[in-house]
Amino acid sequence: MIALSPTDRGWFLYLQQRPDLSVVNFWTPTDWNVQNLSNGDYWYFVLKGAEPRKIGGGGRFLEYKLMRASRAWELYGTGNGSASYQEMVERLNKHINKRSQTSRASNDPEIGCVLLDNCAFLPEYEQKTAQDFGLSFPRQIVKFKSFDNPPLILAEQEKIPGVFTDSVDNLEEFNPSNEEDARKKTLASIVRRQGQPRFRQALLAAYENKCAITGCDVTDALEAAHITPYIGEHTNTVQNGLLLRADIHTLFDLGKIAISPTDFRVILQQELRYSHYAALEGKMIAVPKDKTLWPSSKALDIHKKDTGL
């Protein structure tokens, strides 16, 4: 399943300059009641302001939920597509006043949040129209339109999983001369995923080079996980981090694993309790010897509530 939605060009251009954000909030000024998409589907940006309207990029759908704008800013910061909370609220109220006959401007409006990861923002020369993909997307659509289609191949030059996956028939023949360049790109991708170097080094030292949940001591497999999302350097503190094995980090970010803020025990989403990860349920995590470096109970509580666990 995929969805296309008219997209504010200012929001798009701001985020286009910040490709390293882990989660992007495609906020909606009113409740759009997005129910027909599931985690892992794709959401695409149809840019407003020029004709013909083109698809500027997209991201992998995580979830949709309602929250106050202040909470969205606290969680996702500049991932909301604005440089400041004030700018975000001003943009929100502009849309609210324009589109809604019942809602009024507010300093902290309730908004819909289409949360995306693995986002990509195409340069103009690579953008195509919905019609180029055989999709009908008339101008009358002001929210979104979903299609029972596989992910779109937006740009063959890019090989970003999901958003830009090429078909097997179109893949380039293996060329050994490209192997070194591919290796460099892979290593760079691993470094980005493992986290900011200083933050990761601090966590490696605090957790003695072991995953807080599994005890894995293979350093190359360990990543610096933020408990509450990264929204600036001030969130790169050991108390807002956990040293996690790569797969555990992914599940933690997806909200399938949480940590009890009271006793530091692992909580699993229902589907994981009957999986390979079942043995982790109720396990107490390892914490740093230095109590001042223990994970923040407040941050763990926020993460746990956001996951619904």
Structural write-up:
This protein has 309 residues and is α+β, with helices and mostly antiparallel strands. It has two domains: 2-169, Hypothetical protein (Archaeosine Trna-guanine Transglycosylase, Chain: A, domain 4, Roll); 187-303, no CATH class. It has seven helices and ten strands. It has helices at residues 9-16, 69-76, 85-99, 179-194, 197-206, 246-253, 297-307, and strands at 2-7, 24-28, 42-47, 55-68, 110-121, 145-147, 222-226, 241-245, 257-259, 266-268. It has a six-stranded mixed β-sheet with strand order 2-5-4-3-1-6. A hairpin with a 7-residue loop joins strand 3 and strand 4 (55-68). The chain is globular, with a radius of gyration of 21 Å. The two termini are 26 Å apart. Mean pLDDT is 83; it is low at 157-172 and 184-195.
Could you outline the blueprint of secondary structure elements for this entry?
Elements lengths: L1 E6 L1 H8 L7 E5 L13 E6 L7 E14 H8 L8 H15 L10 E12 L23 E3 L31 H16 L2 H10 L15 E5 L14 E5 H8 L3 E3 L6 E3 L28 H11 L2
Parallel strand pairs: 1-3
Antiparallel strand pairs: 1-6, 2-5, 3-4, 4-5, 7-8, 9-10
What descriptive keywords fit this protein?
309 residues, alpha+beta, Archaeosine Trna-guanine Transglycosylase, Chain: A, domain 4, 2 domains, two-stranded antiparallel sheet
| Largest beta sheet: strand ordering | 2-5-4-3-1-6
Report the CATH C-level class of the largest domain: Mainly Beta
- CATH domain topology of the largest domain: Archaeosine Trna-guanine Transglycosylase, Chain: A, domain 4
Helical segment count = 7
Q: Span from first to last CA?
A: 26 Å
Tell me the number of structural domains: 2
Total strands? 10
Report strand %.
15-25%
Q: Mean pLDDT, nearest integer?
A: 83
Please state the CA-atom Rg, rounded to the nearest Å. Answer: 21 Å
Which of globular, elongated, flat, extended, rod-shaped describes the shape? globular
Fourth-level CATH superfamily of the largest domain: Hypothetical protein
Query: Which segments are poorly predicted (pLDDT under 50) over 5 or more consecutive residues?
Result: 157-172, 184-195
